[in-house]
Specification:
Layout lengths: L1 E2 L3 E8 L10 E6 L2 E6 L9 E11 L1 E6 L12 H11 L1 E6 L10 H10 L6 E4 L15 H7 L4 E2 L8 H13 L4 E3 L4 H4 L4 E2 L2 H6 L3 E2 L1 H18 L3 E3 L5 H12 L4 E5 L9 H5 L15 H13 L4 E2 L8 H4 L16 H10 L6 H15 L15 E12 L16 E12 L2 E4 L5
Parallel strand pairs: 2-5, 6-7, 7-8, 9-10, 10-13, 11-12, 13-14, 14-15
Antiparallel strand pairs: 1-18, 2-3, 3-4, 5-16, 16-17, 17-18
Helix pairs in contact: 2-3, 4-7, 7-8, 8-10
Length: 432
């Protein structure tokens, strides 16, 4: 574990968009580069990791996480967030700008890049669309890009002003970078504390209706079509939202989208079953079974391009309050693979190659980042994983600084065993 420029990974089954993981190979890494692949390679002087017939794929990427640093280190730091990412199988993440200060100037982008430089997980900052995320005037987008930003978003809040969004799409299109919008009509949604529907009515909680998400998506599709810009719909969660994106793609609009495991696994009924557990409170909220099924169908037919976590850590004391006062958000890096295995792979919705594409290939393509290749001469950027191991996700297994997961103390199936990136090998040994 740690710096290992030279390593021989034995007995792993490669999975890519072209390979199904149905044969075994060894991978020799020298100076962080794949020097050789083949069957039963000689050890030479290399240290060995025996994969014991686990799968290996290009390293996974989560294009939507909140690392909280700078400014909210009591929730998460770049280091602890990257530890959670590595445990979950991710070798790269893109972090949202709702920090303090906001990622709205080049110096903050460069601070994050420098802070994460020695970590085994590569961190790509996302710059804010507007200054201070106040929605009034756009940031110096080109300067942010030159500093290392890979996209623009005011996530946590939408870009509410349509003229500002139009200008942002026009500028970002010249830089060939997407605008990632938190799709929410604030006048329709607030002060909603969960999905508006039968469950919220029974519980007496003010709800956020699906239309609040869908109205903003419809607007952004029209603006993207008008400007030629690339709109990326963050954490899609409703049936009609999926249909809007599907129809937008059919019309040739430059639109991509992502879904979170909790939005294709859990429904609003869980809030009632678990007696207002605040670890079930997030935004967009958990929706109806109909919405969950639509998100799954969108993943199946390709309408939804990528799987992300929207990893949103909160300190224990922030979540241990009445449901209506709790902040939105859950951690998700450590459990994303297991939930995806359960809902998408084991159910036969999509195959392993497609699932890996949504975790490793499409996020990078959306952000115009190079996709790792398992081939001689390529930098080693790998995730080693299985799909059948059963394990308990207890607080001991949480690498995040925060513990706000709805999956705590549950038995999960499928685990990321190790990652290799930036000359570093991280072996994910269970603590329980």
């Amino acid at each position: 574990m740690g710096i290992k420029p030279n390593l021989l990974i034995k007995n792993v089954r490669p999975v890519t968009d072209k390979e199904k993981g149905d044969y075994l190979i060894d991978i020799r890494i020298r100076n962080g580069v794949i020097a050789e692949t083949g069957e039963q390679l000689d050890q030479d002087d290399d240290e060995i990791y025996d994969g014991k017939q686990a799968y290996v794929s290009p390293g996974w990427m989560d294009m939507h996480v909140h690392l909280r640093e700078p400014g909210q280190e009591h929730k998460e730091t770049i280091k602890t967030g990257c530890e959670a990412a590595a445990f979950g199988g991710f070798t790269e993440v893109a972090c949202m700008p709702n920090t303090n200060p906001v990622i709205h100037t080049r110096d903050v982008v460069e601070f994050i890049k420098k802070k994460s430089a020695e970590l085994p997980v590569t961190v790509h900052p996302i710059g804010s669309v507007t200054k201070d995320r106040k929605g009034k005037s756009i940031t110096e987008m080109n300067d942010l890009k030159e500093g290392g930003a890979v996209a623009f978003s005011d996530d946590g809040d939408p870009v509410y002003n349509s003229q500002v969004m139009r200008i942002a799409l026009e500028y970002s299109s010249m830089l060939n970078m997407p605008i990632i919008n938190h799709e929410e009509d604030l006048q329709l949604s607030r002060p909603g504390h969960m999905h508006e529907g039968e469950v919220s009515a029974r519980l007496g909680l003010e709800g956020t209706p699906s239309i609040a998400e869908e109205v903003m998506i419809a607007r952004d599709l029209l603006l993207a079509q008008f400007t030629g810009g690339h709109i990326h719909v963050a954490h899609i969660s409703t049936k009609e939202a999926v249909e809007l994106v599907r129809r937008g793609k059919e019309r040739g609009v430059r639109v991509t989208t992502e879904a979170c495991p909790h939005h294709f696994d859990l429904t609003d009924e869980e809030i009632e079953k678990r007696h207002f557990d605040t670890k079930l409170k997030m935004h967009p909220p958990l929706r109806s079974r109909q919405d969950v099924n639509a998100v799954i169908e969108g993943l199946k037919d390709g309408t939804i391009d990528a799987i992300c976590t929207d990893h949103a850590p909160h300190a224990i004391e922030e979540k241990e309050v009445e449901f209506i006062y709790a902040p939105n958000g859950i951690i998700g890096l450590e459990t994303a693979w297991s939930i995806s295995v359960k809902q998408l792979l084991k159910s036969g919705i999509i195959n392993l190659q497609t699932l890996i594409s949504k975790l490793a290939v499409r996020p990078r393509e959306i952000l115009s980042l190079p996709v790792p290749v398992i081939d001689e001469g390529e930098k080693a950027n790998l995730t080693i994983f299985n799909t059948d191991e059963k394990w308990q996700f207890t607080k001991k297994e949480v690498r995040s600084k925060s513990k706000n997961s709805p999956y705590l103390d549950q038995e999960l199936t499928g685990r990321a065993l190790a990652v290799y990136n930036k000359n570093q090998f991280v072996l994910n040994t269970l603590r329980g």
